[in-house]
Amino acid sequence: MTFLLSDELLAGMRDRAGEYDRDNAFFAEDLADLQAAGYLAAMVPAGLGGGGRTLRETAREQARLAAHAPATALAVNMHQVWVGVGRYLHERGDSSLDWLLREAAAGEVFGFGYSEPGNDLVLLGSRTEARPDGAGGFTFHGRKIFTSNSPAWTRLGVLGLEPGGKGSEGRLVHAFVTRDGGGFEILDDWDTIGMRASQSRTTVLDGAHAPAARVMRLLPPGPTLDPYVLGIFTSFEVLLSAVYAGIADRALELAVDAARKRTSMKTGRARAQDPDVRRRIAAMALTQDSTWLQIDGITQDLDASAADPALDRGAGWFRATAGLKVRVTEAAREVVDQAIRVSGGATYFNGAELGRLYRDVLAGIFHPSSDDSAHATVAQSLLGPLDD
Ligand SMILES: Cc1cc2nc3c(=O)[nH]c(=O)nc-3n(C[C@H](O)[C@H](O)[C@H](O)COP(=O)(O)OP(=O)(O)OC[C@H]3O[C@@H](n4cnc5c(N)ncnc54)[C@H](O)[C@@H]3O)c2cc1C
Question: What is the DSSP letter of 197?
């Protein structure tokens, strides 16, 4: 597989990653480099002006980026997810997001404004009010948290709930607002222990407007098999998994390096000769082998299912991709933890790359699907829904 991002470009990003982390600074230079390399249009079909990369290829490349600059990869992931949704729909004959694919190819940067305080329904409900503008569009009023890439997105995908009428529930409104259109405030509240360069700040929506042409779906609250939601869910879970797999790949590399460089006073030999260290490193590699089999397998099936309905798992994609996300992010935490044990106390100093990966990898547990919700999805697929 050929990669869009050169080793040299990635090396520059790795150099900057520590500085961004220390200064709690946005990854502005990385973003400019990624734009110039055509990376933000990588998954846009060639016929719409992009690189025509598959989901599988993009997952591999996102992991490679994460292995150099985790927070940059995570924030850019939100853009890639939207391109992934556009591609998912386009390949299945639905052109409703072709405008997004064209705009991504033209340089627009897409953010993901879905998470809200205390909303564990995620895609299935919203605390944000979507007020009809009378012309088929909506204005959005509410609080979105953890909006990655806050300083730079130019288009923001949002979810809100239309007020219900008499005796009827409102509909969920999936739409896009623009930075130029205003009607929102970005708070300067990002000061976290990890993924600092992502600058995933709070966005207060106060009248941000989506015209009718940018209202993508009006859906009843609750579970749905609408392709738009399936596209978001599957693209999000697999590309997110790739970011954390990339962090673990890098942790393994650093552990191997440390095992070769550190010596034991007890034996006078490199730690790489210590059977315990060897076993730890082998276990990490075995975990990563399994991680990549899972990511490659699911992305391959997702890519192929557009043309081959026999591969389409329907509702089964929720179980498959939520499970993937939970297994991969948990495995990545374990791999980074083991890498730290192999590498020793030097990793405990601020500025150590592995120490930063340890903080970054923790973020994996907060993204949907949570461990609990993935288990609930699997239980439902085996046992049916809970009784009322
Ligand atoms: C690095 C990183 C980047 C992310 N990027 C994005 C992104 O780009 N787009 C996106 O949509 N999501 C993003 N997420 C969000 C993520 O997916 C979760 O939604 C987020 O981590 C919140 O998790 P939580 O619900 O466990 O948080 P919680 O800790 O439960 O809640 C988060 C906040 O909401 C408040 N809160 C909790 N319950 C209530 C309540 N009932 N009423 C009022 N306030 C309440 C809490 O006090 C807290 O301030 C990102 C997350 C991380 C870690």
Answer: G
pLDDT, tens digit, for every residue of 133-181? Answer: 999 999 999 999 999 999 999 999 999 999 987 777 899 999 999 999 9
With respect to residue 75, please indicate whether it lies within any of the assigned structural domains.
yes
Say how many C-beta atoms besides its own lie within 10 A of residue 206's C-beta: 14
The torsion angles phi and psi of 61, rounded to 5 degrees, stand at -75, -35
Cα of 144 from ligand 1 centre, angstroms: 8
125, 221 Cβ separation under 8 angstroms: yes
Any idea which residue has 């909006």 for tokens? 147
What is the 244 CA–ligand 1 centroid distance (Å)? 18
Q: What is the CATH number of the domain that holds 155?
A: 2.40.110.10
- Global pTM exceeds 0.85: yes
**What range does the domain containing 143 cover?**
111-219
- Closest C-alpha residue for ligand 1 atom 33: 117
**167 and 238 share one domain:** no
Q: What share of the chain is helix, strand, coil (3-state, %, to 5)?
A: 55, 15, 30
Our CA angle for 50, 52, 56, nearest 5°, is 130
Q: How many domains does the chain have?
A: 3
pLDDT digits (tens, 9 = 90+) for 209-225: 999 999 999 999 988 99
- Which residues surround ligand 1 with Cβ inside 6 Å? 74, 78, 112-115, 117-118, 145-148, 195, 198, 200, 363, 366-368
Asked if 234 and 241 touch (Cβ cutoff 8 Å), the reply is no
**Distance (Å) from CA 145 to ligand 1 centroid:** 6
For ligand 1, the distance from its centroid to the CA atom of residue 119, given in whole angstroms, is: 8
Rounded distance between C-alpha atoms, residue 324 and residue 330, angstroms: 10
